[in-house]
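Write out the bound-state structure for zinc ion.
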Amino acid sequence: MPAISSNKPYRIGRSPTGLGLFATQPIKKGTRIIRYFGPLLDCDKEADDAIENKYLFQLSNRWTIDGSVRANVARYINHSCRPNAESDVKPRKRKVFIRAIKNIAPGDEINYDYGTDYFKEYLKPIGCKCVGCEKKRKKKRAEARAERQRLKIKAEKKALRQAEKLAKDRAKQARKARDKAGEARKQAGRKKLNGAHLNGHGSHKIHAVKSDISVRARGAQGRAR
Ligand SMILES: [Zn+2]
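---
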């Protein structure tokens, strides 16, 4: 790691994505924090694919800074979609400075937005790990979890409703079956009775019993006398 003089308001430290640059002193909004520097590449002379690294900083159509050199401490600054600093490009001077766009507190990681091209090329494929995107991802995950929970509860409620309906239907069917059986018994009873009336046995028997009783009664009376 390159040495950083103690009068600088930053240090290199561990960040969620590897190394990053962190404030060691309060940095006021608008302050020039550090220069992003390295050999200048002339696009008119160099082949397009001569140098390919993540630290190329395009100054203009012609000039690009190769910031991959060790002494360029600014290369430790990570990208953020919600940065507290920005790149201040001076194309005519062929210089880039990183400037605070917010008051930065000691301990805060210093970030700037690398721009759409870099984002599309390097960050989108792996997913941006900046605090803003992590927060967004967390929120989305929480929302997805809540949605899954909501659907689960909904499904459980539906299953319960279906079970209740099934139980109700079964009870209804059982009641119907009972009623039907009761009706059938009644019908059968009525048929028997009707039959008895029709063939005369019933009334005959009743008469017979009556006559029996009367006979016996008479007999008893007879014996009593
Ligand atoms: Zn991001």
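---
The chain has three helices and ten strands.
The CA atoms of residues 213 and 219 lie 9 Å apart.
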